[in-house]
């Protein structure tokens, strides 16, 4: 997801008294820890904060753990179809968040029985992935990527490893042929369309990804295999080609970015926190502990847009009007003092909301597949480059200024060069 900074002065949006004191999301201090950032917002605004998106478009940021649970569990009241939004007359054609809130006929925006149909197909298709086979594939991809930089003794791990590995693993799960230049191009296009840099053209890249997936759906209709795409097409729900392509794009987009940042944020924790730095393989604290701690304290999908109120209602003492947009503050909910103290963080406790909750939550078994990808990525790297250290000071690492994804801009490391 791209990052946006608005420099315009505060201006209350028309017709909304609560938004007079709203927080401009683009102005948040992302270099703080997630718990500090969201605790201060909660202190000032309560469990449901009025916020301003790009172009000062008003929305509600739901910060409390019980409130996020309530919103995500009541999809009849807080619905997913963005066409319900009462702000559409104020949204310009080039609005930067359009790729994420503009209605598309995919599983993401469906409601009720149609959502059950589409999500049912996805769960069935994802359940067919053998987790041991996925771990083996991730290890092969990891070794291939490590070999590309192992001889140099330095690497920038976000680009060379954390983003590349889940992109390749997800394309493999979807049945894309591996080991080809075409896969490299698709991985690059995927990265550009999901996470554009300044010189890239995300729209053109997105169109190339769509075209390639349309071709994949055609191929798999004729020649099904043991992959997500074929299982989706063979499901009795009878998806059309267009529905299959839309939902494949949703799966790939939903899987790649959060898993990449889960890997990056976990490597950061392992390399910078002395509880882990001494000896990860020593058994006192494990990679599993680090992965879980990240989901509590630096979760990749820190805020998720969104839900749209189906009618006027109350939430956290706020009056929500029909058609208002609500953002799920997943990182804020995870660090809500109501469910804190820190003893909650630990390998055994997975009551965080990092995969959301309710009907539209990250569908079973996607969180398990993400865990296989992230765990294999981190363990294989540590195994092959055991003396990996951060280049420079911990304080030089910077978080991307994104409201949506919590991830590092870069993760530069050095290690003893090896030949693989
Ligand atoms: C660290 C990794 C991941 C995180 C943190 C994550 C988190 C999330 C979140 C927060 C949502 C939004 C839920 C909502 O609207 O309430 C979501 C939805 C979704 N995720 Fe994940 N996810 C991850 C990995 C994956 C993977 C690996 C897959 C697939 C292989 C996947 C597939 C999906 C799909 C298809 C949806 C849309 C569900 C729907 O609207 O019904 N995710 N995920």
Question: Would you kindly provide a written description of the structure presented here, covering whatever features stand out?
Answer:
With 420 residues, this protein is an alpha+beta fold. It has one domain: Cytochrome p450 (Orthogonal Bundle), CATH 1.10.630.10. It contains 15 helices and eleven strands. It has helices at residues 34-45, 65-73, 98-101, 112-127, 131-149, 157-162, 164-173, 181-194, 202-222, 228-234, 241-272, 274-277, 287-297, 330-334, 366-384; strands at 23-24, 48-53, 57-62, 78-79, 154-156, 304-309, 313-315, 318-320, 325-328, 389-390, 412-414. The strands form three sheets. A six-stranded mixed beta sheet has the order 1-2-3-9-6-4.
Summarize the structure.
The protein is α+β, with helices and mostly antiparallel strands. It has a single domain, classed as Cytochrome P450 (Cytochrome p450), CATH 1.10.630.10. It contains 15 helices and eleven strands.
Strand content: 5-15%
For the largest sheet, list the strands in their spatial order: 1-2-3-9-6-4
| Corresponding CATH superfamily | Cytochrome P450
Provide the low-confidence segments as ranges.
Answer: 1-12
Return the string of H and E elements.
EHEEHEHHHEHHHHHHHHEEEEHHEE
- Ligands bound, unique: protoporphyrin IX containing FE
Helical content (DSSP H or I, runs of 4+): 40-55%
Strand tally is 11
Name of the top-level CATH class? Mainly Alpha
CATH topology: Cytochrome p450
| Helical run tally | 15
Shape: globular
Count of discrete structural domains: 1
CATH architecture: Orthogonal Bundle
What structural class do the secondary elements suggest? Answer: alpha+beta
Our Rg estimate from Cα atoms comes to 21 Å
The overall pLDDT, averaged over residues, is: 89
